[in-house]
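hiii, so i know i said id send this last week but things got crazy w the move. better late than never?? heres the sequnce for the chain we talked about at the cafe, plus the structure i predicted for it. fair warning i was half asleep when i ran it
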Amino acid sequence: MSTTQRQDRLGEGVSALVDLSAVDLSATLATREQMFELIPHRHEMALLDRVIWANEDNSAGVGSLTVRGDEFWVRGHFPERPMFPGVLMVEAGAQLACYLYNRYFDGLHLAAFLRIENAVFRRSVTVGEEMLLVCKGIKVTPRRFISDVEGIVDGQICFEAKITGMRIADK
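okay and structure toks below
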């Protein structure tokens, strides 16, 4: 996709990865507790609230998180205007990618970040906002996955990145 086409789509508030108009964004495929069957993240590092949708082959999905005022980063990032840290935005996208990877391989596998590429932050996210996470797999093997991820708030893309994860253990 050309830069101009991408900018046009960003201006429309449309996901560049998944046609969100075809997804019931009020649906829940997996609750937070159900996600724990397929992602190893726990406690304050479990960022997703729910998985909304995954396509049939688990190569694409949509999740969500609502930024709360009691999270560990709020007090210091930044006291007068809390902004969800960009690195946590990417981490939330990676958790969705991990969920899809483990769904694809039918089990809980510990996968760790290897690479974050082309990360761009376009909009801040703050307390009270719901961020949709969108993930589209580029390549999946039993050992690793490469995915494009993005976050969307109020119809605007707030971040995008390409991530690579690697399976390092079975849980």
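btw Residues 86-104 form the longest helix (19 residues). thought thatd interest u
miss u guys!!
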